[in-house]
Amino acid sequence: MNVLNYKNEFEINDIVTQLGNEKLKSTGHGFRDFGPILIIDAANQSTKNYTENVVKKPAIGLISVVLAANRNYNKVVEPNLIRIEKDYPDLKTFQQLSEIIKTKSEKEFFEFWGHKDKKKYNTLVKLLSTIENDLRKSYPNAKNDFELMKSWGNDVDLMNYKKDIIGKIPNIAVATIQHLRMVYGVNTVKPDQRVKEVLDYEFGLSGLSDENVINAIEQIAKIVNKEVITIDQIFVKYGSSYYNRSSNKLTVKQIAINLKESNVDIEIISKATLLSHRQIERL
Q: I want to staple 149 with a disulfide (CB 3.0 to 4.6 A). Which of 108, 129, 182, 184 is the partner?
């Protein structure tokens, strides 16, 4: 796919600039760390510090990725990570995390990471086993856990991810692979719901596959001369700050479109959907 078939370079630059110049809101990813600053400033800081903690504590990075799959980061993931790091300040390596799993019952581990999900638990167990038994053999010169995962991340072939050492693990697909790659230092994007929403609402790119989302973000990053991970962070922070998911089968976007087609005043549509005038005008 080519994003220039939907927006020209000027429009793309303008959209990214407008998103970045909005302020991070309390629902936004990273608000706890940055407060109500400009999204571009928060995104630049996140780009700079994205792997800072994981370099020191690779095990925390692994927990964060598994917990984050299809979950609200602010409500479910971040509070548990903060608690875990407070209660287990010396937890750093994959080996230490494996030992915790071995010494705790399943119920005790659920209490440890604050999540009662058998599937996620099995995914984490299998992931650690695969890293220890298979991945280390492929990268024998890796000096530590972070370097091991980054080496793997740099070599991932997304077109054949189901044949990848980690990609073939049950319940791990493109989004989780991309999240792992980002957490362990690869300049890329996670094709999650927020990124897809921004591509849909702001660029008119809807219904994209995960692979095409990644392709689109890479193209946008090149056009606006920013790192791919920075565009990821702008979109995630903007989407989590300004989009409100509908609890019924109609999306907020579709509700806004229906109201707009019924010639409802744009101010009323904005109040009803929490979308900005600019977003509504683009629909």
A: 184
